């Protein structure tokens, strides 16, 4: 934008700090309810990590650069906001080559139980393993179907959530998934090392943990990966992830929200005063409600000096769990065609049609964790691959489609942020890219490097993002894709639920400031749930926060100079 449409100090009903998909959802809900909303985003575009980008200069491919699949976006939010988005279902759930023999693999085919059962037998899984696998997930689904509707409702207590599980006949799943380490039930129910690994992966993506950790972060991660829609299906957003954020932005603007991009918030002060920099000038705005669509750690910095490191800021908003590190490396590739596999029994289209697991057996996961905990990059590196273009070729130009090109997104696990520093980031990025390619090549019949497209500048179409790169690009502290450690989607018995903000899981220690992003309880992933729940808390509270210092004078009565 070329000019700021507001005076140096302007009053709103709500100010949203950060224009990621959750902030856009909150803005849309509040603006639809007639509230005057200002959303401030420091980047040149809205959408945060849920965007599509032309990652390679001169190459007409729009990659979902950071987030890439959708599971937790409720149909209720799509309907409420009139979002015109299409989510495409993948036929294949996963493909996992046997690291001991790359000529055989486990293919989970959602459309053919017989073929899946035969695949279990082909990898040497014991008799009954396929049935045990399907029974395990059937029990998990009983629990997720019971809990899914609670994600967009006021919080339940642990006892209330457990009662829902019992009512749904999911008491056994509750005990397995909520009360004890998920590794316990996986090891009890399943015998094959590879099959166990396929299940465990959902507990570890983005979370540096072991199967039997007592703090149960791996369990919470597992629950979130299975709870979407009650079914746990992960779908491809047609048009790329930017299509989802684009629709949320359209809904927010259409409802009357003011959205400023290239507007960097520099401070959030008591009384609902937000200072920001836009068009080379300093500005301020006030509101009875400030919704933070940034990580809690980032919010604390803004409430402090605006520049102090998280460790020096009083923990008014965050708790130790919100300081948890990210644990992944992200690699995007654009290939001339899909690579040939060592496994000649499965077509590349089927193998890459779901989630492609590499070096992710139960034992490999644990060895990788121990290596990373000791300060080294795991070898082999556990990896997962997603081929967006197989399900949704629209992200490629007609020319690339006709040529048979495809995108690959690789997510390397057990790469904790502790391995990355300001000094070694460039070197580590190269090492991690090499580790990803080595892991990928271990199951291919040809080197993937030979299939990379090159741009007009002659550079191969591959980019690698470390945890530090992700923090710098989209503000996720320590590269944590969940904005910090995940929390259960319920509160402990006796937890205070005496205000709308607390009931909706978006409260901070300041009654005027709410969390509306992935750092809110029930945040994480592309779901818009954090934005929905924060907006609900505002609308339930009335125009002014309880115990707010602005309750007496109102925002329009404030007269403050522009922040300097």
Polypeptide structure, described:
This protein is an alpha/beta fold. The protein folds into 3 domains: 9-50 and 242-323 and 481-557, 3-Layer(bba) Sandwich (FAD/NAD(P)-binding domain); 91-125 and 328-414 and 421-465, Guanine Nucleotide Dissociation Inhibitor, domain 2 (2-Layer Sandwich), CATH 3.30.519; 133-233. The protein has 19 helices and 20 strands. The strands form 5 sheets. The protein has a 7-stranded mixed beta sheet with strand order 8-7-16-17-18-15-19, with helices on both faces. Strands 10-3-2-14-20 form a 5-stranded parallel beta sheet, covered by helices on one side. It is globular, with a radius of gyration of 23 Å. Mean pLDDT is 92; it is low at 1-7, 305-316 and 547-564.
Uncertain spans? 1-7, 305-316, 547-564
Rg over CA atoms: 23 Å
- In spatial order, strands of the major sheet run 8-7-16-17-18-15-19
Quickly give the structural class.
alpha/beta
Q: Estimate nothing, just give the exact number of structural domains.
A: 3
CATH superfamily of the largest domain, by name, is FAD/NAD(P)-binding domain
Summarize the biggest pleated sheet: 7 strands, mixed
Q: What is the third-level CATH name, the topology of the largest domain?
A: FAD/NAD(P)-binding domain
From the coordinates shown, what is the CATH architecture of the largest domain?
3-Layer(bba) Sandwich
Distance N to C terminus: 21 Å
Mean of residue pLDDT values: 92
Task: Describe the oligomeric state of these chains in a short phrase.
Answer: single chain
- Strand percent estimate: 15-25%
Helix content: 25-40%
**How many strand units?**
20
Give me the number of helical elements. 19
Which CATH class of the largest domain is shown?
Alpha Beta
């Amino acid at each position: 934008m070329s000019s700021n449409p507001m005076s140096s100090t302007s009053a709103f009903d709500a100010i949203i700090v950060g224009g990621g998909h959750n902030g856009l959802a909150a803005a849309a809900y509040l603006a639809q309810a007639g509230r005057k909303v200002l959303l401030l985003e420091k980047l040149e575009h809205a959408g945060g990590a849920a965007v599509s980008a032309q990652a390679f200069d001169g190459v007409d491919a729009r990659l979902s650069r950071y987030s890439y699949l959708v599971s937790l976006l409720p149909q209720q939010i799509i309907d409420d906001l009139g979002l015109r988005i299409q989510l495409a279902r993948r036929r294949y759930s996963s493909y996992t080559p046997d690291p001991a023999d790359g000529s055989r693999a486990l293919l989970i085919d959602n459309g053919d139980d017989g073929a899946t059962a035969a695949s279990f037998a082909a990898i040497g899984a014991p008799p009954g393993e396929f049935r045990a696998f399907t029974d395990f997930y059937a029990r998990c689904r009983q629990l997720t179907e019971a809990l899914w509707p609670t994600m967009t409702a006021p919080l339940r207590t642990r006892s209330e959530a457990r009662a829902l599980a019992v009512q749904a006949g999911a008491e056994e799943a509750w005990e397995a998934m909520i009360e004890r380490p998920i590794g316990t039930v996986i090891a009890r129910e399943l015998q094959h090392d590879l099959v166990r690994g396929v299940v465990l992966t959902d507990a570890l993506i983005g979370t540096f943990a072991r199967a039997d950790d007592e703090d149960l972060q791996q369990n919470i991660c597992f629950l979130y990966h299975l709870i979407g829609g009650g079914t746990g299906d992960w779908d491809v957003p047609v048009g790329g992830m930017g299509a989802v954020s684009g629709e949320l932005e359209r809904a927010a603007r259409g409802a009357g929200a003011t959205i400023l991009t290239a507007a960097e918030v520099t401070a959030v002060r008591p009384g609902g005063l937000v200072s920001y920099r836009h068009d080379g000038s300093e500005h301020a705005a006030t509101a009875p409600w400030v919704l933070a669509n940034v990580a809690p750690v980032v919010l604390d910095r803004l409430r402090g000096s605006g520049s102090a490191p998280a460790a020096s800021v009083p923990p008014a908003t965050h708790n130790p769990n919100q300081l948890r590190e990210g644990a992944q490396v992200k690699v995007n590739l654009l290939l001339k065609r899909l690579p040939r596999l060592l496994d000649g029994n499965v077509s590349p289209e089927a193998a890459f049609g779901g989630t492609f697991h590499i070096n992710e057996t139960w034992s490999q996961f644990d060895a990788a964790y121990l290596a990373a905990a000791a300060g080294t990059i795991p070898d082999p590196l556990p990896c997962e691959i997603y081929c967006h273009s197989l399900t949704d070729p629209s992200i490629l130009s007609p020319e690339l489609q006709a040529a048979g090109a495809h995108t690959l997104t690789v997510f390397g696990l057990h790469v904790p942020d502790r391995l990355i520093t300001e000094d070694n980031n460039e070197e580590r990025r190269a090492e991690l890219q090499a580790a990803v390619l080595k892991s990928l090549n271990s199951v291919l019949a040809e080197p993937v490097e030979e299939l990379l497209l090159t741009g007009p500048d002659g550079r191969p179409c591959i980019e690698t993002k470390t945890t530090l790169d992700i923090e710098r690009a989209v503000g996720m502290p320590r590269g944590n894709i969940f904005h910090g450690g995940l929390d259960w989607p319920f509160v402990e018995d006796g937890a205070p639920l005496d205000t709308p903000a607390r009931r909706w899981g978006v409260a901070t220690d300041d009654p005027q400031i709410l969390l509306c992003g992935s750092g809110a309880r029930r945040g994480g992933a592309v779901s818009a749930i954090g934005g929905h729940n924060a907006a609900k808390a505002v609308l339930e509270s009335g125009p002014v926060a309880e115990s707010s210092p602005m309750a007496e004078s109102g925002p329009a009565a404030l007269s403050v100079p522009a922040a300097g």
